[in-house]
Amino acid sequence: MFTRKRQSTTSLPPSPRDDESTRFRKYMLTMGIRVACLILMVVVHPYGWYTWIFATGAIVLPYIAVVIANVGKDAHETRAISPELALPEPPRAPIANDTPQVIRISESPTEDKT
Asked: What is the DSSP letter of 90?
């Protein structure tokens, strides 16, 4: 029938508070994995090839955590939809032949009662 374009909450970028909390959660998860790698590197005996994997994780994960945390709302840019409605023009009624095409308005001067 007719189409409407509405502003959608999904087309808006995330609020700064939500963006910050998402980045903080990602950082803390990665640093938690790093702490687990540090603990496993020391606790697991006998030392072997997996000790090197834990050590590599403990060394590399801080860099990865910072890079992931710094990728904020710039990574996925959203475009806001215009809130204007797009409605089709209503059909016009046909003009009858007996209606005048020009409307004339005549005004008479008002009398001043002073």
From this structure: P
End-to-end CA separation in angstroms for the chain: 61
Residue among 25, 8, 19 nearest 73 (CA): 19
The one-letter code for the residue type at 110 is T
Domain that holds residue 51: 18-87
Domain count, the chain: 1
Tell me whether residue 30 is in a domain: yes
Enter the tokens of residue 60.
């590399």
Which residues, including other chains, have CB under 8 Å from residue 88's CB and lie 6 or more apart?
Answer: 2
- The pLDDT score that the predictor gives to residue 28 is 95
Kindly report whether the global pTM for this prediction surpasses the value 0.85: no
Stretch 50-68: mean pLDDT = 92
What's the burial of 64, exposed, middle or buried (CB within 10 Å: 0-12/13-18/19+)? middle
- Please return the burial class of 22, using the count of CB atoms within 10 Å of its CB with bins 0-12, 13-18 and 19+: middle
